[in-house]
Design goal:
537 residues, alpha/beta, Metallo-beta-lactamase, Chain A, Rossmann fold, 3 domains, seven-stranded mixed beta sheet, binds zinc ion
């Protein structure tokens, strides 16, 4: 039986999850995610898909995060007409998340085009619009957890709770009809796997006895000491106490889904128990508010909220809806918690709050989630002294704090345990969704745990594995969109980052020079050097 899988994203990087699987008479995608991070990586969002969208028969989504679903509207624009499968909660979340993603792109493109007009550059177009996002979300059908269903000829599918965020799942496929003595193959896509002991989601599950496993590796090199929900609240209390003592506002760049609701619940519980003083908390993200409503719809299944009637709506929490209300928060100079998206600070209202608070040494920025390399969040976290936001240069003087006890991802040992629970796996394990060095660390750990080294693969972007041959899969690169050697490097930092850093340094250097004449001389020297380089090239 023909059986091929192409890794169209999240190969030696963390974002852009998308796997293209083909068997006789049926082609499908698992996830259709957007690339995030450096400009070079994000440019992949604008180009063609590395497959024919019209020839794809179905899409199976693991969970609602945009790096797993964000190119779905583009897939429809490029002619995909088949069904899209997801859990009910994933579908509910995407009803807001996909239009929001379209809206962000329209907004960003408008801003860039204003600049391009001034510079006499041609206009650019959004990958898709809010309308396209609405249309894609409307087309999603929902599937049950842990029940097999038929999705096409010789394609049986079963969803398993992955414990990562609301609605998240691993997706198991049984492929082939088995007719006339034909074979059947079983493959499981992990999606993102949650840690044990999350407040709002139960521990990840999955089947045993597979031919192949495609598994995420985000934290494949890291061992955390996972805290119980009570201990986690204790640690949060310590952060809030210190930030309140410092005297400024507390900004929390919040991921709209799951992290926001965990924090709302924990902050509310801490105030209810008088463990922290009553502080004003603003949730300033329309998307996070919509997501919270979806959580409320599904909160009957959340053991961790212990039957609390309104787990995310403590009286001190105010939901900020309009842009005017959001702008008005500028006048709040101290003592408030402002939770705002996006979680990596690369879009949304948080940028405006950072602009207002970053240069205040009394303010605190509390990171509560993963910051992809190249994002504004990662620059701040890595200790940048100055950053640019909306074209303005801002000094970073605020207290920068980061906590990892709200992770939505399993750590290394939890991943290894989860993988072992799937044994036996006879054909191969593909490690995806991780930075190169992290994936290598997880691979070594699996080999130490007695996995056959010949069966643990680290796919590259646009690499195809032919699983229909006997023995080891045959692999080849199929028109790779990026130079394979440079993928993991450009995912971390590309020339755009170097350029931005150079501009900041230059501005600083110029300021430290004693007088106008010396500054002008430096600029003349710089020009001369550049001209020389041009001629040499
Ligand atoms: Zn995720």
């Amino acid at each position: 039986m023909e059986f091929k899988i192409k890794f169209c994203g999240a190969a030696r990087t963390v974002t852009g999850s998308c796997y293209h699987v083909s068997i006789p008479g049926f082609r499908f995608l698992v996830d259709c995610g957007m690339f995030q991070g450096t400009k070079t990586i994000r440019e992949l969002n604008y180009g063609d898909f590395p497959f024919d969208a019209k020839a794809v028969d179905a899409v199976f989504l693991t969970h609602a995060h945009i790096d797993h679903t964000g190119l779905l509207p583009k897939l429809l624009k490029r002619g995909f007409t088949g069904p899209i499968f997801a859990t009910e909660a994933t579908r509910d979340l995407l009803t807001y998340m996909l239009p929001d993603s379209g809206h962000i792109q329209e907004f960003e493109v408008k801003r860039i085009n204003q600049r391009n007009r001034r510079r006499d550059l041609p206009p650019i177009f959004p990958i898709y619009t809010k309308e396209d996002g609405v249309r894609a979300a409307e087309g999603i059908r929902y599937v049950p957890m842990e029940d097999w269903f038929d999705a096409g000829p010789g394609v049986r599918v079963r969803y398993w709770n992955a414990g990562h965020i609301l609605g998240s799942a691993s997706v198991e496929f049984e492929l082939g009809t088995g007719a006339n003595g034909g074979e059947r193959k079983r493959i499981l896509f992990s999606g993102d796997i949650g840690p044990d002991q999350k407040t709002l989601q139960s521990n990840p599950q999955g089947p045993k006895n597979l031919d192949y496993l495609v598994v995420e590796s985000t934290y494949g090199d890291r061992d955390r000491s996972d805290l119980s929900p009570e201990a986690r609240r204790g640690a949060l209390k310590a952060e809030i106490d210190a930030a309140v003592t410092s005297g400024g506002n507390i900004l929390i760049p919040a991921f709209a889904v799951e992290r926001t609701q965990e924090l709302l619940f924990d902050l509310g519980t801490l105030m209810d128990n008088r463990q922290i003083p009553d502080i004003q908390i603003y949730l300033d993200s329309p998307l996070a508010i919509r997501a919270t409503e979806v959580f409320e719809k599904h909160s009957g299944h959340m053991e961790g909220v212990n039957g609390v009637a309104k787990p995310f709506r403590h009286p001190s929490i105010r939901f900020i809806q309009t842009v005017e209300e959001s702008m008005a928060l500028e006048t709040v100079r101290s003592g408030a918690v402002i939770m705002s998206a996006s979680g990596m600070c690369d879009a949304g209202r948080i940028r405006h709050h950072l602009l207002n608070n970053l240069s205040n040494p009394k303010a605190t920025v509390l990171f509560v989630g993963y910051q992809a390399p190249g994002t504004l969040g990662s620059l701040i976290l890595d200790g940048a002294k100055k950053v640019r936001i909306h074209g303005q240069e801002v000094s970073v003087k605020a207290r920068i704090r980061s906590v990892d006890f709200y992770s939505a991802h399993a750590d290394r040992e939890q991943l290894v345990d989860w993988i072992r629970e799937r044994f036996p796996i006879t054909g191969g394990i593909f490690l995806s969704h991780g930075e190169q060095s992290v994936i290598e660390a997880l691979r070594s750990r699996l080999i130490k745990a007695k996995m056959d080294a010949n069966l643990v693969f680290v796919p590259q972007l646009d690499e195809v594995f032919d699983l229909s041959v006997d023995g080891a899969p045959k692999r080849h690169l199929d028109n790779p969109r990026l130079d394979p050697a440079s993928v993991s490097e450009t995912a971390t930092s590309d020339w755009h980052n170097d350029y931005a850093a150079l501009l900041l340094e230059l501005a600083n250097d110029l300021r430290t020079l004693p007088d106008v004449e010396t500054r002008r001389r430096l600029l003349v020297d710089l020009r001369r050097t550049l001209k020389g380089k041009e001629r040499a090239a």
